[in-house]
Amino acid sequence: MALMSLIAFLLFNYVGDPVNNMVGQEASFQDRQELRSRLGLDDPFIVQFGRFIGNAVRGDFGISYRMQRPVEELIIQRLPATLELVLVSALLANIMGIPLGIFTAIRRNSWLSRLLLTASLVGVSLPTFVIGIGLIYLFSVSLGWLPSFGRGETVEIGWWTTGILTLAGLKALILPALTLGLFQMTFIQRLVRAEMIEVLESDHIRTARAMGISRTLVNYKYALRSTLLPVITIIGLKLGELIAFSIVTETVFQWPGIGLLFIQAVSFADIPVMAAYLVMVAFVFVFISLVIDVLYYLVDPRLRAVGSGGLS
Amino acid sequence: MTGNVPKRRGSFLWYNFCHDPMAVVSVGVLILLLFGAVLAVWIAPQNPFDPASLNLMNSFYPPVWMEGGQLSHVLGTDDQGRDLFSAILYGTRVSLIVGMGAVTLSVIVGVSIGLLAGYAGGWTEALLMRAADVQLTVPAILIALMIDGFARAALPSAVHEDIVLYVLIFSIGIADWPQYARVVRSATLRERVAGYVAAARVIGVAPAAIVLRHIVPNVITPVLVLAALGLALAVIAEATLSFLGVGMPATTPSLGTLIRVGNDYLFSGEWWIILFPSLTLVLLALSVNVLGDWMRAALSPRLR
User: Fold this and answer.
1) Residue A154's pLDDT is what?
2) Quick one: pLDDT at residue A310?
3) CB 3.0–4.6 Å: which of A15, A80, B48, B149 could bond B154 by disulfide?
4) Is A263's CB within 8 Å of B139's CB?
């Protein structure tokens, strides 16, 4: 997957002329040439590519064409904002989505779970940005309770800036996190419900019930455990989706994270920033699938018994 | 079809359909939207793609039922004096073309790869499915963003504007093939060992003919369900890209582009510019989703 992002870099590197985008119409030919050689764009392709890989390993992604600042500096400065947003909304989505899914699976025919199911269908159909705009209109424009853009007040802890510790920061976090989390929540709810219904109809649950084990115990100890196994994988995959959709949410709320950085880089053909973002996202994906494998191992005793690992 | 005991599969489906009010309503909404989109040229009071028909003096009219509204602009106008009702009809058309094109592409690619992997087996299968797994980990919207960004940088902007529709169809469609490939592959694996396939092989039917004539009809049902749900996702993906400003340009707006334009006027009180395109988009996605959900329940309960 890291390989894939390098291919992406290859593609991007071949196209577009960043110099044209950086200097204005009036820049002379000399100025352009000077800028070119300063950015190292005159070197043969292999040299550029080799330099990119070598530097990337050391965490150096070059200088942003547009902002004229080191890319890693830009990313580190903006990374906390995105991570906070993604983690809070993932937490929100799981805390609400999993219990709702369990409820709608166990009480399959009650009117409340039918209502919840219909609501979740609406949730899946609402595009992220429409949710965001709707929330802004309701809570910022009409009611004026919450800010509609930015991070509010932030506190610096070392290089990490956090908005969680101040009231204004928390208030600014609510709407974006809700926006990002809502789609995931409805998705998780439907997923947990579907898996759980299947498990509840399986033989081992029927046996447990026939043996007279209490319903609560059957539902929450035996059924839930088999349900969560496939759910973990997909929730993990969806975490990647949260990062991707943070681009949308950050655009709607002008949230100063790396998603906004990326979309601005795309429109300015700012290749170093784009490449760095892609490499970083690829790294996150690899990391997530590693965590999923470990979790699998912890949840499923069968895998521990085999013990040879090698799962994917 | 009149409430008799259902005998054939077709009448069973019809019976099931008639007894699900949500499915009926969503089909009604879909047909309405489809008609609006197909007949946009004749229904729309104005051609929003034609700059000559726009008049800046007409900008920011509110909807007809509000003070200052005009009967000729039922849903009001936007910043360029574009009639919103017309723009939505045309925009729905663009959104549907991109959505259907993308789904068609991913179904064709996904089904072909799934059939190939399932029927050929061996290293072909391993390689193709590995590729599907890798692509599945990367969110579709990111792939689409990457391809679109690449096309944007590679092509001069005049050329790009002409083919942006195809770029969008390609970038959304290509991101979605793995799920079709997976479903078709596992169904093909089941069918490959069935008696009728062995019989066809014995009498000397060519492998390609076996796959196309005998296996495809037996594995296509879950694909239809996925495609219905995929259409909603594709329409939303297109709207998202357009909203981010990397989709359809403002000169040939899709629903997403209209929402992006409207977003600039949300704070200044011209709420109708953003509300009506958003409502149309949600209605479109919702009715497709409801229909897909019904199809899933009726056709293949095991598929999730």
Assistant:
1) 64
2) 40
3) A15
4) no
